[in-house]
Amino acid sequence: MVTIRPYQLDDLEDTVCLWYRTWHETFSHIKHPQPYSLWKARFRDDLAVHGDVWLAEVENKIVGFVVVIKEEQWLSQLFVDTTYQNQGIGSVLLAQAKAICPQKLKLHTLQANMRACKFYERHGFKFSKLSTNKINGQPNVEYYWVSECDV
């Protein structure tokens, strides 16, 4: 059974390890320009400071997380450990993001991540535009979601 809880400072290493590992497993064909140390610094100094971070746990193991920048209505990160995907954990994390920003959310994902694109579209997100990821230079797809109550 999955449990959702707020991120705490002592979760940093496990969360960043999951993020880094899952990204590299998902995009094994893409060489990311940043080393692990920069991922960790970005999470610690930016995402955890400016974002609302929630973790998904199974048997006290962190298996996923979501980062929402509430002021910008921005879903910054949503990652689920590859061994725990297709079990509804991403949907639970996305529901948490929608609870944080109940009117609307924006996000981008790599265009090559067709599973993520289909996931977001299944959950009511609409295509907005194409862009380029500022960190890794890859093509992004930008999506938005608006609550049915606000349509």
Walkthrough of the structure:
Strand 2 (about 50-60) and strand 3 form a beta hairpin. Helix 1 (about 10-25) packs across helix 2 (about 35-50). This protein has helices at about 10-25, 35-50, 90-100, 115-120, and strands spanning about 1-5, 50-60, 60-70, 75-80, 105-110, 125-130, 140-145. The model has no long low-confidence stretch (mean pLDDT about 95). The protein has a single domain (about 1-150), classed as Gcn5-related N-acetyltransferase (GNAT) (Aminopeptidase, 3-Layer(aba) Sandwich), CATH 3.40.630.30. The chain contains four helices and seven strands. Strands 1-2-3-4 form a four-stranded antiparallel beta sheet, sandwiched between helices. A three-stranded antiparallel beta sheet has the order 5-7-6, with helices on one face. The longest helix has 15 residues, at about 10-25. About 35% of the residues lie in helices and about 35% in strands. The relative contact order is 0.15. The radius of gyration is 15 Å and the shape is globular. The chain is an alpha+beta fold.
